[in-house]
From TrEMBL:
Protein name: Metal-dependent phosphohydrolase
Keyword Hydrolase among record annotations: yes
SMART domains: HDc
Alphabetical list of Gene3D superfamilies matching this protein: Hypothetical protein af1432
GO molecular function, one term: hydrolase activity
Lineage: Bacteria, Pseudomonadati, Thermodesulfobacteriota, Desulfovibrionia, Desulfovibrionales
Annotated Pfam families: HD_5
Record's keyword terms, sorted: Hydrolase
Length: 333
């Protein structure tokens, strides 16, 4: 006897078979899966397509005609499913037959998985090259997705989730690309390079002891504070084996600088900071304020922007104005 779909969806707890539900609209014509697709019929899961089958438009259309809203993949084939989603994320985001809410969910599930792997594995395994290529693909796909003015509103609730480094990294990337898009000089190549820097800006923190990342900044000893402030330069060192453009490196190295010259590691003032770095500095601060950290609970968008305005000497004024506009248009603030 097969377990019911309700039991099957309890993929994170319990014993026995586990299954992952997903939208049949994610089955793209002319693509090949590495996983078995199961269909719920009379409260039982039955085979719909074998791993290795080539999906056709008929596959998807038949499911739609049957009114199927979810199909399933076995939990032990999760890796193949994730690989499929990563390989086809750009196509899924471009497919207007998929409801915007489903595209937003697909973006988040895929994005957070890729970003989590980068931060948890510290780019130090034999799979580093593959993971780095996936980050590049994610940034390109996300930047193209955010060209749709409605996209940020759809993913806003997702990027506010979590408190891990990878949650913050994803949020900062989305906000920075969205902010830079409002400047006419920001072409697709710049958005990609800066998006890479934004998602990797805190990678240097993976070299720090965990206790330090969980400690309130005002309780750090002078030595702990000095060590903590090495993370921008440490990020450059972590990525030394990767080919990165100067704009990407600027984002990693300068993300704690301030327009008044009182930031770190170098105390670089506004006139010496490129626009893309000033945009990232602001988005990094905003995301930190709206996310729970050891320094305090998350602020709501209004509270965070009020704090930023009070500290406006630290940030680029034009970037503040444009970030408010971006957040307002997405109904975030």
């Amino acid at each position: 006897m097969q377990p019911s779909p309700k039991q099957q969806e309890q993929a994170e707890s319990g014993k026995g078979p586990r299954f992952i539900p997903f939208s049949p609209l994610f089955i793209l014509p002319s693509t090949r899966s590495g996983f078995t697709v199961l269909l719920n019929q009379n409260d039982r899961l039955v085979l719909y397509a074998k791993g290795g089958d080539i999906f056709t438009e008929a596959h998807r259309q038949r499911l739609l005609e049957m009114g199927v809203e979810r199909v399933y993949v076995r939990a032990e084939e999760k890796g193949f499913y994730e690989e499929y989603m990563r390989s086809h994320l750009g196509e899924l985001l471009d497919d207007e037959t998929i409801p915007p809410e489903d595209r937003a969910a697909a973006w988040y599930q895929t994005s957070i998985g890729i970003t989590r792997e980068i931060f948890q594995n510290r780019l130090s395994t034999p799979a580093t090259g593959k993971r780095f290529a996936q980050i590049e693909g994610l940034v390109k796909d996300t930047s193209a997705y955010l060209a749709d003015p409605k996209a940020l509103k759809k993913i806003a609730a997702y990027i506010q989730r979590g408190f891990h480094l990878y949650d913050h990294a994803l949020g900062v990337m989305v906000l920075t690309v969205s902010l830079l898009r409002t400047f006419p000089q920001a072409d697709d190549e710049l958005l990609f390079r800066v998006g890479m820097g934004a998602i990797l800006h805190d990678i240097g923190k993976t070299t720090l002891p965990e206790y330090l990342l969980q400690k309130r900044s005002d309780l750090m000893t002078p030595e702990e504070r000095r060590l903590f402030r090495t993370h921008p330069a440490a990020g450059i060192a972590v990525l030394a084996g990767m080919t990165l453009e100067s704009e990407t490196l600027h984002c990693i190295l300068f993300h704690h600088e301030q327009s008044d010259g009182k930031g770190y590691p170098a105390g670089v003032a506004s006139q010496e900071l490129p626009l893309h770095a000033r945009a990232l500095i602001l988005c990094n601060a905003y995301d930190n304020l709206t996310r729970a950290t050891p320094d305090g609970p998350a602020k709501n968008p209004f509270e965070a922007l009020t704090q930023i305005k009070a500290d406006r000497e630290r940030y680029d004024i034009e970037c503040i104005k444009r970030l408010i506009m971006v957040l307002s248009n997405a109904e975030i603030a």
